[in-house]
Amino acid sequence: MRRIPIAGRRGALAGLLLALQPVRLPAADNWLKYASGPFEVYTDAGSRAGRDTLMRFEEFREAVGQLLGDTDLKTDQPILVLVFKNPQAWGPAGKLIQGRDRYEIVLAEKAAISPDLYRELTRLYLRDNTSRMPPRFENGLVAFLSTFESNGVRITEGAPPPNPDLDWARIHLLAVDPQFFGKLRVLLYNLRQGVDEDAAYRNSVGKSPAETEALVKAHLAGHDFQSITISGRAMAPSDFQERVVPESDARLARADLLEGAASATEYRKLLNDGDKMAEAKEGLGLLALADHHPEDARGYFADAIKAGISSARCYIEYAKLEPDNAKATDALLHAAGINPKLEEPFVLLAQRDTDPAKRTAHWKAATERNPRDWAAWKALAEGYLADHDYADAAKAWRGGELAATDDATRTEMREARLKIEEQRLDYEESERRRQAAEEAQELDRLKAEARAQVHELEAKANGGAPTTDPKAVPWWEGPKPDGQVHGTLKQVDCLGKQLRLLVEGADHKVVKLLVPDPYKIAIHGGGIETLGCGMQKARPVAIQYFKKTNARLATAGEVAMIEFQ
Q1: In 3D, which of 559, 552, 551, 550 has the Cα closest to residue 483?
Q2: What integer is the mean pLDDT of 213-220?
Q3: d(CA 349, CA 452)
Q4: pTM of the full predicted structure?
Q5: Which domains, ranges and CATH numbers included, belong to the chain?
């Protein structure tokens, strides 16, 4: 057996112990922070690294805003950028990740912002600031902005990606070619509003979609891709105020990257810090959730809430795990109060609430916060339909149509919207029938009461004996029918609200009779439902009718009474 020298063993042991020691942050006075818009930058690489990084991100936000016609793009959560002298193994560098209560980005000092990160940021800006546009435009914007470059306030756009395609070429042509300067943002605005593409193109670029697409294809085939330089936002690195980051804030920011055991170690150290105990509990809950320990996670989230956490995500994750519906609802309402931009609390509230009116209100709030969620639009439309609010249901189906990400879903939403008028008419007709039935029932009740009163008066007049006069006058309903036919009902034609009956008499001649209003005739041996449209099985009937011809409908009279025999 080979023996390791004592010195070697001690060195190996020391190395092992060193490897097991948690990585510690630099001293607090080495961490600085800068903030602008949705961004905060923390850095241990000095003020220049922090300010220059923030300026690059803000210039990119400005460039995206210029294309979309919105110079103050927002995000549903803040974005923290950590600029390390040495990122070591903390987080996937150059990626936009979901941290504990914000998005986070890890960068090394002097590292360039990658095309992939620009793509992720573009998708985030589109999601949080615009209604959905046709995929080819969104894909083109993502590709076009991936090659963004900035040098101070000078912004360069238009460099081709490694494999330019038609979607990229479309945006490149409309953004770079002088004949289209300023027109792209008008086109994109029209598309976001759901304007028909033909009208959107003609109102912005002055050409039809087909004419424009021909130019785009020629542009891609020509491979003559020019870049342009535009003016960015008027700012300088010195505009960003510098602040010192307390050690606990810096430690929490790094733990919030949610990097497994390393983050857990940092969170446990922060449990002793009164200012950060709630955040550390939430972080441990998220790590437990990632490790598939939901009960542990719920306990951590509950502790964080008791400690006064101000993170909407903590309340949302707690609500998902909490079986008590009342507690979960309170947590979701609290989350919505902390961050009103988030859609998720309202989606979860809508899924939990049993009150139809409240559920519809939650779906409406969800679509206002995220107009790209076609499923929320669909649920909202169905809520309006259940309440017979056809006008708002049509608007919701339209919202779903614009938010759809594929042709099948888009077609489903469009067809549902087109059925709204038919559904409205059907509902109004059923309501008219119901009201007519109720009125007829009320009339029968009044008749019965009147007869009872007459009989009571007769009884009093006869000394209490009931009348037995066989010649008592029956209840008079108006003119008596002057025509009748006995035979077989062969067919019922439904003519809107009217019916036309085809009756074959005993002499085998067919008589056509009109029913102006099915609810104003007497039907014996069945109800209105017995008059189904179309051909009829041999059904013997006796019909009394008023002789009144209708030349247009070729009928000989209007039905007063039908008796199925």
Answers
A1: 559
A2: 96
A3: 57
A4: 0.70
A5: 28-237 (1.10.390), 260-342 (1.25.40.10), 483-564 (2.40.50.140)
